[in-house]
C-alpha cells in the first residue's frame, strides 16, 4: 500500500509537473504567437502606412508632373513668343538699316544739293556784282549827260544849217526841192531803214515811271520799231530807279540774228541822240523788281529783246 501510494503520489507529482510545464509552455507559446501576431500586425500597419505615404507621394508627384508639364508648355509658348520677337527685331533691324542707308543717301544728296546751292549762290553773287558793275557803268553823271546833250544839240543844229544851205541854193537855182523829210526827221528814218531788215523781231519796252521824259522817248522808239516792222509792246515800270539812258538787253541763249538786231538798234539809238548801251539782264529773264503795267498778252518776259528806257537826251 505504501508503495502504491508513493507511486501514485509520484505519478501525481509528475502529472502536475507535466501539467505545469505544459501550461507554462502553452503560455509561452501563446505569448510568442501574440507577440508574432502583434509584430505582423504592426508590420502590416507599417506597410499600409507606407503604402498610403507612397500613394500620397505618387499623387504629389503627379501634381508636380502636371505642374511641370504646364510650366514646360508655358516655357514653349514663351520660347515661341521670344522667337517671334527675335524675328520681328531682326526685321525691324533690317528696316532700320534700310532707313539708315536711305537717310545716308538723302544726307549725301542734301549735301550735294547744298554744295550746288552754295556754288549757285556764289555764281549769283558774282553775276550780281558784275551786273551791279554794269549798271554803275551805265549810270552817267548828270553833268556829263547835260554836257553831252549840249554837244549833241550843237551838232544837230550844225547839221540842220548845213542841210538848209544846199536846199536854199537849189531853190534859188529853180530846181525842185527834195522830197525827203526835213533834217530833223532824217535820224528817225535812218533808224527805220536800218532796222527794217530785222522785221518781225519781238521787243518789250520797259518805260521807267520815275523818269519824266521816259514815256515820250518810249513812244518815239516804239513808233520807229513799228514802222520798221518790229513787234514792240510797251509796259510802264514802277518801283525801280537809277536807270539812265536806254539799255538794250538780250535774253541769254538768243540766236545770232537777235543779237545783231539788238546791236543795230543800239547803234541807231546812239545816232539818234540817245545815250544807249547793250547789256545782259542781271538775273533770271523771268524775274524783275517792281511792277509792270501794260498788256496781259504777250507776257513782258516773252520777247527776246528788252529795251529799258530811263531818259532820252535832247
Q: What is the general shape?
A: rod-shaped
Residue share in β-strands = 5-15%
Strand order of the largest sheet: 4-3-6-1-2-5
Tally of contiguous helical segments:
5
Low-confidence stretches: 173-188
Tell me the number of strands.
Answer: 6
The H-and-E topology, N to C, reads as HHHEHEEHEEE
Structural class: alpha/beta
Q: Identify the quaternary structure here.
A: single chain
Distance between the termini: 209 Å
Written description of the protein model:
This protein has five helices and six strands, in the order H-H-H-E-H-E-E-H-E-E-E. The protein has 314 residues and is α/β, with parallel strands linked by helices. It has a six-stranded mixed beta sheet, with helices on both faces. Strand 3 (246-250), helix 5 and strand 4 (276-280) form a beta-alpha-beta unit. It is rod-shaped.
Quick overview:
It contains five helices and six strands, in the order αααβαββαβββ. With 314 residues, the chain is of the alpha/beta class.
Amino acid at each position: 500500500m505504501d508503495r502504491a501510494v508513493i507511486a501514485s503520489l509520484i505519478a501525481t507529482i509528475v502529472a502536475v509537473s507535466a501539467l505545469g510545464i505544459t501550461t507554462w509552455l502553452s503560455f509561452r507559446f501563446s505569448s510568442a504567437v501574440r507577440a508574432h501576431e502583434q509584430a505582423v500586425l504592426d508590420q502590416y500597419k507599417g506597410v499600409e502606412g507606407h503604402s498610403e505615404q507612397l500613394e500620397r507621394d505618387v499623387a504629389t508627384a503627379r501634381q508636380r508632373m502636371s505642374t511641370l508639364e504646364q510650366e514646360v508648355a508655358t516655357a514653349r509658348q514663351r520660347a515661341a513668343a521670344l522667337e517671334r520677337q527675335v524675328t520681328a527685331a531682326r526685321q525691324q533691324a533690317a528696316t532700320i538699316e534700310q532707313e539708315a542707308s536711305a537717310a545716308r543717301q538723302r544726307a549725301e544728296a542734301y549735301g550735294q544739293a547744298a554744295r550746288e546751292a552754295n556754288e549757285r549762290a556764289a555764281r549769283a553773287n558774282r553775276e550780281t556784282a558784275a551786273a551791279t558793275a554794269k549798271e554803275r557803268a551805265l549810270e552817267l553823271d548828270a553833268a556829263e549827260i547835260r554836257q553831252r546833250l549840249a554837244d549833241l544839240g550843237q551838232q544837230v543844229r550844225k547839221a540842220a544849217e548845213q542841210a538848209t544851205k544846199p536846199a536854199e541854193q537849189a531853190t534859188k537855182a529853180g530846181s525842185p526841192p527834195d522830197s525827203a523829210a526835213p533834217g530833223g526827221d532824217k535820224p528817225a528814218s535812218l533808224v527805220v531803214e536800218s532796222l527794217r531788215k530785222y522785221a518781225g523781231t519781238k521787243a518789250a519796252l520797259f518805260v521807267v515811271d520815275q523818269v519824266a521824259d521816259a514815256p515820250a522817248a518810249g513812244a518815239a522808239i516804239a513808233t520807229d520799231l513799228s514802222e520798221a516792222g518790229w513787234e514792240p509792246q510797251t509796259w510802264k515800270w514802277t518801283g525801280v530807279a537809277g536807270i539812265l539812258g536806254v539799255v538794250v538787253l538780250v535774253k541769254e541763249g538768243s540766236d545770232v540774228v537777235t543779237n545783231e538786231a539788238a546791236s543795230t538798234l543800239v547803234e541807231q539809238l546812239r545816232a539818234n541822240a540817245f545815250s544807249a548801251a547793250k547789256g545782259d539782264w542781271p538775273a533770271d529773264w523771268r524775274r524783275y523788281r517792281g511792277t509792270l503795267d501794260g498788256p496781259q498778252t504777250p507776257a513782258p518776259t516773252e520777247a527776246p529783246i528788252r529795251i529799258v528806257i530811263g531818259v532820252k537826251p535832247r
